[in-house]
Request: fold
Amino acid sequence: MILLASRSPRRRELLDQIGVQHEVMPVEVDETPLAGEAAEAYVRRVTLAKARRARELRPDLPVLAADTAVVLDDRPLGKPRDEEHAVEMLLALSGRTHQVLSGVALVTGKGIAYRLSTSEVTFDTLSEAQARRYWETGEPADKAGGYAVQGRAALFIRRIAGSYSGIMGLPLYETGQLLAEATLLDV
Reply:
């Protein structure tokens, strides 16, 4: 049994997929990027902050935490504030390749371990009308970069290189490595 420091239903589904028993305990940490902070450093900082905070609250269980950032031109896009912000992000991604960085951390009594998954996603060219129709589905409202690879946005994605589960929010290969090294998963 592990503690998942996330409220993401996708992360829960992915842990279920690989047979990891977990309890959900979302934690709040400041996810504001620091001035001049590189995207990889941002993902690492936020992931580790979530893991440490959950471990402080529940030291009795191993803690798994993750953070995902959609990065365009070395800048994390975050989650859309509103429809206009979502449309702006989707049009910026339109016809281009961007990175998705997913950090995952595991905290046990032995310490903390961290892995990073880097993937590339290429979008087809989108019109403003397509971006607005997509917003109206409600799907992009709480998603990094304003889209969900496992949802309707799959219609916009021309190519993926890397980890599909990492783009969803929890890179299973890296997660499996961490859990196996801590002897919490036999892979």
In short: The two ends are 16 Å apart (CA to CA). The beta strands are 2-4, 22-24, 63-72, 75-76, 97-108, 111-123, 157-161.
